[in-house]
Amino acid sequence: MIGSLDVIVLDCPDTRALARFWAEVIGGEIVQFDDDWAEVVLPIEGSRPLLAFQHVDDYRAPEWPGQVVPQQIHLDVKVEDMDAGEAAVLAIGATATGEGSDGFRVYLDPAGHPFCLIVPND
Question: What is the total count of domains within the chain?
Answer without folding.
Answer: 1
